[in-house]
Amino acid sequence: MTYSDIHIHALFGVDDGAGSEEAMCALIDAAYSDGTRHIIFTPHYHPGYYGKNEEQRDKAFGIARSYCEKKYPDLSLALGNELHYMRGSVDRIHEGYCRTMNGTGFVLVDFTDNEALGNIAAGLERLLNGGYRPILAHAERYSAFYGKQNELHSLKAKGVLLQMDACSVLGDFGIRAKQQSGKLLRAGLFDFVSSDAHNITDRPPVMSSCYEYIAKKYSPDYASALCRDNAQKLFFETE
Question: In a 3-state reduction of DSSP, which class is residue 84?
């Protein structure tokens, strides 16, 4: 079984992910060993916190691509960003500072875990109105949606897609995120599972473990759709 990972912080020197070229290569090695064959690198786009990192992002992506061309020729790479929603986000995407997912109309977006429901909904609506399809990163971690599945159904009906972190359903983000992951999986609300890996120690790629968990608890077809097929159809099928 292979996996498509559309949320990973492997590019070095741009955010709280890999801190060096060596750490980036080690994280790519770990993802490949875990079975990942399609990656969209998604460094944080949050200028107020990580500064203007577009130049380093593009440089690191070039180094990652060269590394993989030599070592992993069957590993497909693409570039995006994890947009931390803020005032002016749509303009930053239009202007090219924040990258969409592999050059498509989809954009990975996150909010603070305790963001108010109205703020999340309004931000996603602005992205939709701006012509983009938001993928809500680690949707299981927002306290605003606990006990409010109807709100997520409503967002999905408008075109929002939901991504789950592989480590959440395994319990690495605590019991609340684990419980919420289970509820949303049972409801069929997630569109993608991604690693959201940051390093090889406390935030490693665990796509294979998550796939096995979902395949055993639900079905192999469901696990394949979330961990590979949906992302592959949207972002890699023409490559």
Answer: strand
CA angle 26–32–33, rounded 5-degree value: 85
Report the 10 Å Cβ neighbour count for 185: 21
What does 105-117 look like in DSSP terms, one character per residue?
A: SEEEEE--TT--H
pTM to 2 decimal places: 0.97
The pair of three-digit structure tokens given for residue 141, joined into one six-digit string? 């971690």
* Rounded-to-integer distance, Cα 95 and Cα 89, Å: 10
φ/ψ (deg, to 5) at 196: 50, 35
For the cut 60, the answer to whether the pLDDT of residue 239 exceeds it is: no
Query: CA separation (Å) from 212 to 168, 177, 193?
Result: 14, 18, 12
Cα separation of 12 and 114, whole Å?
28
The whole-number average pLDDT for the span 194-201 is 98
Alpha-carbon distance 91 to 129, whole Å? 12
Q: If you average pLDDT over residues 205-219, what whole number do you get?
A: 98
Strand pairing category for 44-45 and 82-84: parallel
Q: Report the chain's mean pLDDT, rounded to a whole number.
A: 96
